[in-house]
Amino acid sequence: QNIMNLYTINHDTNTSTESKPFVTQVLLYGPKGKTSCFQANVDDGAMVNAIDTKAFNQAAGRLRRLVPSSRILRMANGSLVPSQGVWKGSLKWGSVTVATSFEVFDSGGIWKMLIGKPLLEQLNAVHDYAIDQISFPSSPASIIVTN
Are 118 and 42 in contact (CB under 8 A)? Predict the structure, then answer.
């Protein structure tokens, strides 16, 4: 079996402020220039990029078909969830467009898309937690996405 942890877990009891999820909008490109807009949660603890099965199915007519995946994803609570496949294609976030991939699986509707560590690394993203902004310093022009 090809089991992969979806999250890293770190509980810090010394945190005095309330954190909020970093939520952003991205576009996925399908065949012939068709696009689908997704609300995405940025999670630098997620070890894969992921799309919820229901959210993917709603946009599937505008996107490339899934490529088979043998991955089984371990959730934060220890449960194992099989991947339904991998979406591969172009994603636009802010003014940056990249070729990337996302595992598709049933998140139970908790979120529609997770931008995980693989995409953040691919973009050399820098998250400034003090002002809750993500920048892409290696882009030709400095690009900033605000929560």
Answer: no
CA atoms of 22 and 41, how far apart (whole Å):
6
Residue 78 zone, left/alpha/beta (φ > 0; ψ -120 to 50; rest): left
Amino acid at 35: T
pTM of this prediction exceeds 0.90:
no
Q: How far apart are CA 64 and CA 125, in angstroms?
A: 26
Nearest alpha carbon to residue 47 among 7, 10, 104: 7
Tokens of 133: 């902004």
- CB 35, CB 29: distance < 8 Å: yes
Q: How does pLDDT run across 91-100, given as a tens digit for each residue? A: 999 989 999 9
E strand spans, 1-147:
2-5, 22-29, 35-42, 50-52, 71-74, 80-82, 85-93, 96-105, 113-115, 126-128, 133-136, 143-146
Phi, psi of 33 (to 5 degrees): 75, 5
